[in-house]
């Protein structure tokens, strides 16, 4: 399962202030349970010259831009230069990096967004981790709960990994591009530098440096 480890999925862990969470765990889904406590511990230590505390347990960089109609619940940290657009809904346990875009009608819940991540139009991102410079096209969403409500199992080839978690959305490596209208099923893991075609339904592990056209039709980048 080496290809599923934090070190393999995220090529540049310096692109998140939560680097220590990835260093103290082996697999990315193990980080999901730690996000809220990390924010509560880290928020009060942030520079008061660079960050402002807004309400309970919400810290926003002074250089970030937040629309008046966005709703932000804690615990949340929003990094420098990030743009939160009108109608965005940040439900809490949200660690949003620097120079990100959280777009109109986008919902964020129990997530880590590395720096320079874009979820700009009508996205739902729940119980997920999005690597450095990953991008979700308009209307692409994560599905974080199985229809039968049982624990999420990660599928990697013929191997199935029990996670012990009921809720896992998607794990996107660095520089992943997700096409418009795509559904990332519970426990989807997409390796770095992979492109997902629009209107795809993704399940399980997709190798890095791939072009995902549809299930069973995945090309390797040259």
Architecture overview:
The protein has 222 residues and is mostly beta strands. The chain has a single domain (2-220), classed as Hexapeptide repeat proteins (UDP N-Acetylglucosamine Acyltransferase, domain 1). It has three helices and 25 strands. It has helices at residues 6-9, 19-23, 35-42; strands at residues 51-53, 58-61, 65-66, 71-72, 76-78, 83-84, 89-90, 94-96, 101-104, 107-113, 118-121, 124-130, 135-136, 141-142, 153-156, 159-162, 170-172, 177-178, 183-184, 188-190, 195-196, 201-202, 205-206, 210-214, 217-220. The chain is globular and about 50 Å long. The mean pLDDT is 96.
Strand tally = 25
Structural class: mainly beta
The CATH H-level homologous superfamily? Hexapeptide repeat proteins
Distance between the termini: 24 Å
Helical content (DSSP H or I, runs of 4+): under 10%
Low-confidence stretches: none
List the helices and strands and how they pair.
Layout: H1 6-9, H2 19-23, H3 35-42, E1 51-53, E2 58-61, E3 65-66, E4 71-72, E5 76-78, E6 83-84, E7 89-90, E8 94-96, E9 101-104, E10 107-113, E11 118-121, E12 124-130, E13 135-136, E14 141-142, E15 153-156, E16 159-162, E17 170-172, E18 177-178, E19 183-184, E20 188-190, E21 195-196, E22 201-202, E23 205-206, E24 210-214, E25 217-220
Parallel strand pairs: 2-5, 3-6, 4-7, 5-8, 6-9, 7-10, 8-10, 9-11, 10-12, 12-17, 13-18, 14-19, 17-20, 18-21, 19-22, 20-23, 21-24
Antiparallel strand pairs: 1-2, 15-16, 24-25
Enzyme class: transferase
Domain Mannose-1-phosphate guanyltransferase C-terminal: 72-189
Keywords: Acyltransferase, Transferase
């Amino acid at each position: 399962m080496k290809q599923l480890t934090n070190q393999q999925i995220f090529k540049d862990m310096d692109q998140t202030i939560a680097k220590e969470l990835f260093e103290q765990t082996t697999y990315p889904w193990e980080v999901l349970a730690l996000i809220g406590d990390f924010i509560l511990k880290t928020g009060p230590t942030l520079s008061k010259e660079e960050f402002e505390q807004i309400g309970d347990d919400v810290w926003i960089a002074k250089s970030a831009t937040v629309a008046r109609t966005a709703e932000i619940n804690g615990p949340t940290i929003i990094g420098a230069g990030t743009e939160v657009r009108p109608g965005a809904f940040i439900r809490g346990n949200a660690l949003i990096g620097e120079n990100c875009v959280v777009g109109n009608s986008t919902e964020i819940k129990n997530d880590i967004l590395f720096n320079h991540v874009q979820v700009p139009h009508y996205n739902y991102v729940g119980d997920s981790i999005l690597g450095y410079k990953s991008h979700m096209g308009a209307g692409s969403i994560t599905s974080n709960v199985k229809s039968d409500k049982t624990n999420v199992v990660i599928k990697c080839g013929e191997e199935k990994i029990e996670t012990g978690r009921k809720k896992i959305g998607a794990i996107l490596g660095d520089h992943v591009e997700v096409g418009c209208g795509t559904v990332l099923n519970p426990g989807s893991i997409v390796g770095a530098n992979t492109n997902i075609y629009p209107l795809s339904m993704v399940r399980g592990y997709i190798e890095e440096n791939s072009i995902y056209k549809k299930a069973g039709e995945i090309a390797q980048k040259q």
